[in-house]
Amino acid sequence: MAQQLRRFDDRKILITGAGSGIGQATVARLLEEGGTVIATDISEAGLAVTRERAKEAGDGDRLSTVAADVASEDAVRGAIGGAIRDLGGLDVVVNAAGILRACHTHEMTLDFWNKLLAVNLTGTFLVTREALPALLASGRGVVVNFSSTSATFAHPYMAAYAATKGGIQSFTHAIALEYAKQGLRAVSVQPGSIRSGMSDDPGVPADGDWSLFAKMSPALAQGFAPPSVVASVIAMLASDDGKFVTGTELRIDGGAHM
Ligand SMILES: NC(=O)c1ccc[n+]([C@@H]2O[C@H](COP(=O)([O-])OP(=O)(O)OC[C@H]3O[C@@H](n4cnc5c(N)ncnc54)[C@H](O)[C@@H]3O)[C@@H](O)[C@H]2O)c1
Fold first, then answer.
1. Considering the chain, what is the average pLDDT of its residues?
2. N or C: which end of the chain has fewer CB atoms below 10 A?
């Protein structure tokens, strides 16, 4: 029997978007590998499920949860900053919180555009900024950000979402170089076709042209893959197994965009 990996026994981790989908699967994976985790999400109900799953797996004693909106500077400074201080340090941040909305771009309202930017891009910035002092103090800090295949491949009706994900990649490149000499690594994952809360209903307009999505089917599967396929890659990237990986992105889409 293969020996269980325990790459996070001595690591303190913050995961946003941890009440559903990929964030929730990443909490489970990093707890399983011995990590001590703060799980945060805007959804209290989602966090309750995350806690229940950790308890069932026997890992509940290394998990704390905090409800917060990543788009709110006050919430990030207060609730998330407080949780980091309570933990007494931080080695890894996984910025999984995000929203997907789709519409015809010529009909997109400014509120729609601003909401996507606020949660996906500004949220990633606010949480990263809050975590950076503790990550730099760790001397081996890792930031894992969530881009998307939409950042580099055309995804119709998702212009605002795609723009936030392209911005996250650029942000990640910049901090990777800025803090490399202090031991920080920063990487993005680009998931695609993963079963989750947001992919259950991507919100493509009723009159949308589905033939435009023809190039987005995974080569490795008939349908969408479970979030654990991304969590396992994050575990590699955030652990010392990924120690020579920084300032780049990794596509995890079953070959949909080869
Ligand atoms: N599922 C995919 O195929 C796919 C593809 C590309 C990128 N992604 C990215 O993966 C990440 C995780 O998404 P998922 O697929 O697991 O979807 P999901 O909807 O299951 O999870 C997203 C989580 O983010 C939380 N969230 C939303 N707004 C928030 C806010 N303002 N503050 C705090 N938390 C908030 C939600 O409550 C939810 O728990 C996202 O950044 C998403 O853009 C997913």
1. 96
2. N
Which residues touch 40 (CB under 8 Å, ≥6 apart)? 14, 15, 16, 18, 47, 65, 66, 67, 68, 70, 79, 80, 83, 97
- Residue 15's φ and ψ, nearest 5 degrees, are -125, 120
> Which tokens go with 102?
């789709």
Please say if the pLDDT value at position 2 is more than 70. no
Residue of 161, 171, 190, 227 marked active site: 161
The yes-or-no answer on residue 161 being catalytic is yes
Which residues on adjacent β-strands are paired with residue 93?
14, 143
Structure tokens at 107: 């009909």
How does pLDDT run across 78-97, given as a tens digit for each residue? 999 999 999 999 999 999 99
218 CB under 6 A from ligand 1? no
Q: Calculate how far, in angstroms, residue 96's C-alpha sits from the geometric centre of ligand 1.
A: 6
Q: Name all domains of the chain by residue range, CATH numbers in brackets.
A: 12-252 (3.40.50.720)
Residue closest by Cα to atom 41 of ligand 1? 98
Query: Ligand 1, atom 7: nearest CA belongs to which residue?
Result: 148
Residue 215's pLDDT band, with cuts at 50, 70 and 90, is confident
* CA R_g for the chain: 17
